[in-house]
Amino acid sequence: MTSVGIVLGSTRGMPALDVVKIIQVLNSHDIPAQVIPDLRTEKSNQELEGFIAKNRITHLIIGTPDRSEVLSFLPQRFPQIFLTILPLFEQPQTARIADSESFNQKAIHLLLAEHAAIISNKKLTPPEFLPESSVTIIGGGVAGIEEAILLSEFFTVNLIERTGQLGGNTALKKIAYPNQEEIAKLLKAKLELLCIKDNINIFLNANILDVSGNPGDFVIKFSNSEGPHEIKAGAIIISTGFREGQINPPFDDQPNCMTNEQLGGYLLSGEINSLVEGNPPKRILFVDLVYNEPYEIQWFYLLHQVIHLLKMGIDCHILTKNVHAPYKHEYLYREARSLGAQIIIGSLLDLDHESRGPLLATIDIDIPNSIIRLEPDCIVISTPLGPIPETEDLLKILALKRYESSFVFSPYSKLNPTWTGREGIFVGGGAWRPMTIPETLSHASASAFQVYQYLSRKLSPSINLMARVDESLCIGCEYCQRVCAFRAIEMIPTNNSSSDGTEKQVASIIKSLCKGCGNCSSTCPTGAIQLQNFDREYFFRKIETLLGLIKESTTEGPIIIGLTCQECAARSLELLEKSGIELPATFYNLLIPCAGRIGVIDLLKPLAEGADGVIVFKCPETSCHYFTGSHLGRLAVEFTQNILEEIGFQRYQVQACDVIAANSNRYESCINKMVFSIDQSRES
Amino acid sequence: MEFDVIIIGGGIAGCHVAIELAKMGKKVALVEKNPHIGGLVNQIGLVYPTNDCASCMSPTAFHYDGGGFRKCFFSMNLEQFGNIQLFTLADLTNLKRENSHFSASWVQKPRYVSQDCDCCGLCELVCPYETEDEFNCSLISRRLIYLPHLNAVPHTYVVDREKCETCEGVCVSSCPRHAINLSEDPTTTEVTARSLVIATGLREWNPSPLEQMAYGRYENVITQLELARFLDPNGPTGGLVLNPVNDYPVNEVLIGLCSGSRDERYFDYCSGICCTYGLKHALYLRERGINVTICYMDLRLEGQNWIYYEQAKERDVNFVRGQIAFIERDPGTLELNVQLEDTLKAELIDLKEDVVVLTPALIPCERSDWFSQSLGLTHSRTGFFDHEGYSRKPFETEVPGLFVVGSAQAPMGLTKVSIQVDAVTLGILKFLEDS
C-alpha cells in the first residue's frame, strides 16, 4: 500500500496564514501534511522520522525552495522512502507586488495533482476503472488489431468492424504488395493472438448508430446482423484506416487506365501478362496526380511496382512534378533509375485513344514550348489517398474535426498526434494519415498508451480553478457552451419557467471536464458564470489593491499592467528574468489562467483605476493550451480598442501580444512600444 | 546501482521517454554526454509542424488533471522527478547485456560547480579565457566557466577544465555562494537495468569535403544549424541574420538542399526531414525581408507539410531545380558568386549571394558503431538503427529489452518522435511486466 505524505520545508516568503490554509486543505483530502522548517537540523530530522513512522509513509513529497539543501542528505538518511522534491515558492521577481494568494493556490494544486498522479500511475492495473472499464476500437485493420492486443492486457476491449473480415487493407493481398508473404505471416500471428484473448469482443458487419455519454463513460449504439447493441466504453479509438481514391475524368472512360492498387492486383495474379489483347503491355506510363500531397506509402508501392515491371522487361515512365522518396526509399528510386525507369517532370496535357490503337499521351514538360508525346499501352494513376467514406459519418456522430484532406484532425499534431481534441477519444493508424505498416503499428501503440494512461488515472479533486454557475442570473443563451473547448457545459432544464411561460434552461458545469480556463466567464453576457478563485470580484479587488499600492510608491513613468497567461507567456517572462533584461520599473504583472478569461470589462478596470496601459500577453492562437482562449482574448482586446476613444481613452492603451517561450524578446519589445507611445502622446 | 531502465541520450526523445516512465513509477537513469539536456531541439528553436517552441512537452497524464499546468520542457525540470537520476557530462566506457540484464558504466566529468550556484554570472565576468561556443555552432565565443545556454537544465554553470590550466582560479574567489571547487575528480558509475533505450539522435555532417561548396573556406557559407542559431530569438544575434564575414545585415540568401545526401560519394540515402526545415527557414528569412533562392533536387515534404512549399511560393521564394556547381567569393565585395545547374531547363544560372546555406546530410551519432558492437545490435546500410521488413515495430530491436527511439532510428521530425515515445513507453512497461 502506497501512502503519500507531504512536507513543506522552509516556508520563508509565505504569509503564515497561507501555510495554515495549505495544511488544512491537504488534511481535508486525507493527505498527511506537516510543516518542518530547516530540514538540515537534527531536531527537524527526528520530527520528520516521527511524521513518516506515524503515517506509515512510503512516498514523501517535499515542497521547498532549497532543492539542494534537501537533496544533499535526505536520500541517504531515508533510503526506503520514495522521494519527490518540488521546487516550490520560487516566485518570479517581476511580480513585484506579491501575488502570493493565487501562487499558493497553484502550489496546493501542484501537490495534490502530483499526489494523485503518483498513486494512480504506480500500479499497472488501474484500480478504480478496471471492473467496468472497457475500450471500444472502431475499425479492425492492422492498427485496430494491434491496439486490441495491447489493451486487452488491462481492459475489456470491444472491436467493431464495418466489414465481415478483420485485417483491413493489409488483408487484401493487393495492397500488401510487395512483401505479401511476410505481411501474411505478421497478420496471421496477430490474429491468432487476438483469438486467444478472452476479454476481446469482436463485432463484425457492425454499423455505428450513435455515441452518447461523457468521456470516461461513453455509450455506443450499433447494429449488426444480430440486431442492435449497446455497449459502454471508457475510451474510444478510431482506427478506420485509409483507402485509395477513385479514378476521375478524363481517365475513367479510357481502357487500360488503373490505379496503383489495381495494378498490384494484376501483378500478383499474373493477369498482367494478358492485359493488352492477351499480351503483356510494352510500355506503362505512371501518372502522379497527387504530387501536392505526397505520402511515403504511395511512392513506396509505386517504386516497387516499377522495379517489378522493369524486371519483366516492360518500359516504365513516371510522370510527376516531384519525386517523393524520403530516407531509405531513395534506394528504391535509385534502383528503378538504374533499371531504366524514365522520370518525366511535367504534367499531362491531353490523352487520346484512337479506336483499338494504343493511347496517346501529350505531356507538357516544364521547359517553355516543349511537348512530349508518348504511346503507352497502359496508364497507372496515383489517386489521392483518403479516409474510408464511412469515417465522415462517424466523425459527425462523435463531433470531431477533420483536416482539409478529410483525415481525423489532431490538435496537438506535434506532441500528441493520437489525440482528437475530444477527451477520451483517440485516433490510431491510417485514419490520421496514410502510413506504412511499421509506422501504423507505432501509431497504434502510441494511441494504446494514451488510452492506458487516460483510463488508469484517477480524477483528482480539482480545487484550483473551476467554473460555477449562478442559476438565478443564467438566461440560457448557450454562449458559454459554444466557447468551451472541453464540452464541460451542458444545458439543463429548470423547474421554474420564466415570466412568459416558455421553458427555461440553465448552464451546468460537468466538473470532471472543466479545465478552469475561464473562457466561459468572459463570454457570459450576464456574469452568471464565474471562475471560482478567479472570479470578477477577485480580479477587481486584485487590480484595486495593486494600483493602490502603485500610487503610494514614488516610481515615475507610465503605469503598465501586464496580464500574462500562465502558460507559454509566463514562461517567456521567466526567461526574461534569467537573461537579466530590465523591464520598465512601472510595469506590473498579473498572472491569469488564460487570455480567454479576460473580458472587455476586465480590460477597462485597470484603466479606470488609473493605469496608463494594459497588455494581454497570450500564447499564439494555434498553440493555445485551451484551444479557444487566445482567440477570445484577441476578440476582447479588439472590441475594447474600438470603444476606447468614445469613453475618453486612447486606442493604444489596450494591446494584445502573442508570445511563446522561445521568443522572450517580444515580451520586452511589446512593453517598450507601449511605454514609447504613451510618452509620445503625453508630450503632444 | 540498479534501475528499471537506462536511457542513453538526453535529447527530446530520451527526456520524454524518461518523464513518461517516471510518471509510471519506474526508476530511470538518464545519461547525457553534454553538460545540459535537450540535445538538438535546444539549438533549433522553433520547429515544424506547428512553428512553435521546440521545448513544449506532451501533456499526457497531466493534461487531464484540471488545467493549470504548463507543459514546457524546462519548467518540468527533470530534477524534480525523484525517480529520474540524471547523469550529465557522462562518457560511456562499458555497455553489455548479460543474463537478461544490461550493465553500463560511465565516467562522469565533474562540473566543478555545485548545485548552490544561482547563476549570478560573476564568475563568467572574471574568467580571463575565451573559447568557441559549441552550442552556438562557434558563431561566438564563450568563457571557460559558462552556462551552456539560457534554458540549460541543470541550470548551473560548468567549467571547461581542460582548457583552463594556467589560471589561478579567479572564479573560485569571485563566487559569492562558494559553489566552485576546481579540485573535483571524475566519478565512475556502474549501473544495471532490465531495459535499455538508445536515444542518441543524429547530427549534421560537416560538409567541408564538398569542394565546390566551399564550406570552411568562406565564412559566409553556413549550414542549416548555424542558420537556426541566427534565427533563434534567444540566440547570439537576437534573431537577426548577419553576414558572418562583416556582421552586416543580409539581403540575398541561397539555400542549397541535399549537400552530401543523395550522393553516392558521401551518403546515398535521403535525409528525409531537411527539405521541410529548409523551407521553414526560408519562410523565416522572408519574414525578415531577405530574398531567398532555394536550389533543390526533389522536395520531400510528407503529406500536410507540402503547405510549406505553397507558402514559400506565395511569399516569392525563388525555386531552382538543380544543384550548386561552384561557389566563389569576390575578394573585394566579399559577395559570393554562385553558379547553379538548372536540371529542368538544362542551363547554368549565375547568382550573387550574401550568404549560402548548405543543408548537410544527417548522420547517426559518433558512437553508433560502438553501440552496435557492444550490444549486438545491427544497423541498416544508412548507419541508423532501423531494420528492414515488417516483423517488428520500428523501435523494437533483435535484443530483448533494448529499444531505439527518436532520430537514432532514422531522421525524423518531432511528430514522429512523439508517436515513438508513447509507443516505446508502452513497450517498455510491457517488457518489464513480462520479464
Please characterize this protein's 3D structure.
The complex is a heterodimer of chains A (684) and B (435). With 684 residues, chain A is α/β, with parallel strands linked by helices. A 7-stranded mixed beta sheet of chain A has the order 13-19-14-15-16-17-18. In chain A, β15, α12 and β16 (342-353) form a beta-alpha-beta unit. The longest helix of chain A has 23 residues, at 100-122. Residues 89-104, 115-131 and 458-463 of chain A have low confidence and may be disordered. Chain B has 435 residues and is an alpha/beta fold. Chain B has 10 helices and 22 strands. In chain B, the strands form 6 sheets. In chain B, strands 1, 2, 5, 6, 7, 12 and 22 form a 7-stranded mixed beta sheet that branches. Chain B has a 7-stranded mixed beta sheet with strand order 14-20-15-16-17-18-19. Chain B has a two-stranded antiparallel sheet with strand order 3-4. Classes of the chains: A alpha/beta (684), B alpha/beta (435).
Total count of helical runs of at least 4 residues of chain A? 21
Mean pLDDT figure of chain B: 88
Helix content of chain B: 10-25%
**In angstroms, what separates the terminal alpha carbons of chain B?**
20 Å
Which structural category do the helix and sheet elements of chain B fall into? alpha/beta
Please compute the radius of gyration of chain B using only Cα atoms: 23 Å
Number of helices of chain B: 10
Helices, strands, pairings?
The complex is a heterodimer of chains A (684) and B (435).
Chain A: E1 4-8, H1 16-28, E2 33-35, H2 42-55, E3 59-64, H3 67-71, H4 74-77, E4 82-87, H5 100-122, E5 134-138, H6 142-151, E6 156-160, H7 168-171, H8 173-176, H9 180-196, E7 200-203, E8 207-214, E9 217-224, E10 227-233, E11 235-238, E12 242-244, E13 257-259, H10 260-269, E14 283-288, H11 296-311, E15 315-320, H12 329-338, E16 342-353, E17 359-365, E18 371-374, E19 378-382, E20 385-387, H13 390-398, E21 425-427, H14 437-455, E22 466-469, H15 479-483, E23 489-493, E24 505-509, H16 519-523, E25 529-532, H17 536-552, E26 560-565, H18 568-579, E27 587-592, H19 600-608, E28 613-618, H20 629-644, E29 654-658, H21 665-683
Parallel strand pairs in A: 1-2, 1-3, 3-4, 5-6, 5-11, 6-7, 11-21, 13-19, 14-15, 14-19, 15-16, 26-27, 26-28, 28-29
Antiparallel strand pairs in A: 8-9, 9-10, 12-20, 16-17, 17-18, 22-25, 23-24
Helix pairs in contact in A: 1-5, 6-9, 6-14, 10-11, 11-12
Chain B: E1 2-8, H1 12-23, E2 28-31, H2 40-44, E3 46-47, E4 52-53, H3 60-63, E5 84-87, E6 90-98, E7 101-108, H4 122-126, E8 130-132, E9 141-143, E10 145-146, E11 158-159, H5 170-174, E12 187-198, E13 202-204, E14 221-223, H6 224-231, E15 252-259, H7 274-287, E16 291-296, H8 307-314, E17 318-329, E18 336-342, E19 347-353, E20 355-360, E21 362-364, H9 368-375, E22 402-404, H10 414-434
